[in-house]
């Protein structure tokens, strides 16, 4: 493992518990293992989710606390050192005061001075909460005018074909996470109420691990910035 | 949450008749309303075989009706929580009633 002289820092600003694990858990585990200081924001507690365990053991009123604990456990699996909730109700991020939300994220960026900021793409996020937190984080990043780099997380291996989304391979960072799939699987299992319905997650480790891809893909948020390598966010 | 026992839920619903009640109501994929406050005039349950309808008549002129409810619980704060789950634990509908507001 390489070590750096000054501690590298990563800030991820997402919408729901499980975004960090399901979308890019391998990346978190990889950089945590390299000593990167990781802060995760979850705008909501995912308390309006539909999956209540299988068989169901949650209801709408017990869900927030359960998912908060699951996320804390997942952070432990992935090596995410600091977790911040914004206490916005699930499914209402796009209705939150945009200026206040952007300001809050900007303050966080100024305070932490992260080398890398990760969030959702404001158009390709796929869920209104994702797009809204992505839009606010992107605006906050631009305003903070920090030294860091902005990347958007993406789903599965969709960015093997970035041209379908109006991007090129030069906009895509492809991170090899194959050495960190055990941690990623553990984080899936930490989000128990969400993954009990997915039988593959609970297969014996070797079979379950075969369901996880070897790479995770990130889109450059500052497209004009020079990119040294295309397999590393730092 | 346990499977709905109709006479028991009927009795729990009756506790709210004549009271100011805060409601959380949702059709999970489409709509939720949290903390609307009504005076409950009648509280009724219908159905059999594991899937039930519940209707509240309120404020002398209103109705709330929900269907596909399968499970219920009276939680530690005396709130009646009703929900409808599918056979893999996914929630479709919920109807919660309490005498205090639910956390926003």
Automatic annotation (TrEMBL), chain A:
Gene3D superfamilies, A to Z: LmbE-like
Transmembrane segments: none
Pfam family, one: PIG-L
Protein name as it appears in the record: LmbE family protein
Organism listed in the record: Paenibacillus glycinis
Taxonomic placement: Bacteria, Bacillati, Bacillota, Bacilli, Bacillales
TrEMBL record, chain B:
Alphabetical list of InterPro entries matching this protein: DUF1806 (IPR014934), YojF_sf (IPR036492)
Protein's recorded name: DUF1806 family protein
